[in-house]
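Thread amino acids onto this structure.
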């Protein structure tokens, strides 16, 4: 009796996470682009993630778990991070991927395209916080940019205690 030889696949989720990060995520440069990419690996009908390269190197279980954990991690970093960082990352994404900046921002705002960026397993509170933050970011990106506040002169002297 002969058995067909099949390549052995590593089932290590951490190794799959590391592979996905080193080969792809680190090259995207910033978390909002990573979130878009990770979301693009999800089938919107079933919610299942698909990445043929990871499945070929690891098991389907390890590939799915790696993508899921990265999606959740990047989502939480953006949700819980500073709002100004989220605004600048969305700005960067729109500037590098859209022909008409204002049309893109308005379309994202109207269609609420960012809803698909949330991991399926996300906590409802985190989901609402993320959506609220993106809505605020969209409003800020639509409005004219205010000038930065002027820098105040700095003194190196401390006031004396007897004044």
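Threaded sequence (163 positions):
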């Amino acid at each position: 009796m002969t058995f067909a030889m099949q390549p052995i696949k590593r089932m290590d989720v951490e190794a799959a996470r590391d592979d996905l990060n080193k080969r792809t995520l680190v090259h995207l440069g910033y978390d909002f682009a990573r979130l878009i990419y990770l979301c693009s690996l999800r089938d919107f009908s079933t919610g299942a993630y698909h990445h043929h390269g990871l499945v070929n190197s690891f098991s389907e279980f390890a590939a799915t778990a790696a993508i899921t954990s990265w999606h959740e991690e990047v989502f939480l970093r953006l949700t819980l991070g500073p709002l100004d960082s989220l605004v600048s990352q969305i700005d960067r994404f729109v500037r590098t991927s859209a022909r008409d900046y204002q049309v893109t921002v308005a379309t994202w705002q109207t269609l609420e395209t960012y809803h698909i960026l949330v991991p399926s397993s996300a906590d409802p509170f985190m989901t609402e916080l993320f959506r609220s933050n993106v809505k605020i970011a969209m409003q800020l990106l639509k409005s004219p940019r205010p000038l930065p506040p002027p820098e105040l002169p700095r003194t190196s002297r401390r006031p004396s205690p007897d004044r």
